[in-house]
Amino acid sequence: AEVRPTLDRTVEELENDYRKGLKLRAGDYLRLVNVGKEKSRELEALMPDFETAVAVRRAAVDPLNKPADLPYTNYSYTIAKDACIENKIGYITAPAGIAGPLKINGGVTLQAPMATTEGALVASTNRGCAAIMRSGGVKTVVGGNDARACLQVEQRRRC
């Protein structure tokens, strides 16, 4: 359901109730976001559920950028809670393909599902997996929680 700002209380009253730990309505949070008293990016921590937080954020979006055709209900936002994206306003569906197989660490052979609208991406990844498989697979090492890719080639073989 569409969220509208509440008008039955002042912003000061809403802030006082929030500080006292009293429950606020979705429209109350929308008012606080609209006047700059709360940050849109923090709604998930304030609201009773993620979908309500997304509904409030969507209502706070500039009317010229309203995501009317972007779905937001019936999605498990818990999987995107601390990762993936900030300031969530909905989700999209994308075609999915499968690349692989790819042998990992000499044992497990996996296929990689990929969702994309980029033409030939899955096919290109699939060709890369085939080349890696011809060389015996890939060996992985976990070297810490790092946000960059590291590629180290120790041996080369002709395929």
Automatic annotation (TrEMBL):
Q: Name one GO cellular component term.
A: endoplasmic reticulum membrane
Gene3D superfamilies to which the protein is assigned, alphabetical = 3-hydroxy-3-methylglutaryl-coenzyme A Reductase, Chain A, domain 2, HMGR, N-terminal domain
Q: Name one GO molecular function term.
A: hydroxymethylglutaryl-CoA reductase (NADPH) activity
Q: Which InterPro entries match?
A: HMG_CoA_Rdtase (IPR002202), HMG_CoA_Rdtase_cat_sf (IPR023074), HMG_CoA_Rdtase_N (IPR023282), HMG_CoA_Rdtase_sub-bd_dom_sf (IPR009029)
Q: What GO biological process terms does the UniProt entry carry, in alphabetical order?
A: coenzyme A metabolic process; isoprenoid biosynthetic process; sterol biosynthetic process
Q: In which pathway does it act?
A: Metabolic intermediate biosynthesis; (R)-mevalonate biosynthesis; (R)-mevalonate from acetyl-CoA: step 3/3
Superkingdom: Eukaryota
Instruction: Give the protein's recorded name.
Output: Hydroxymethylglutaryl-CoA reductase (NADPH)
From what organism does this protein derive? Pristionchus mayeri
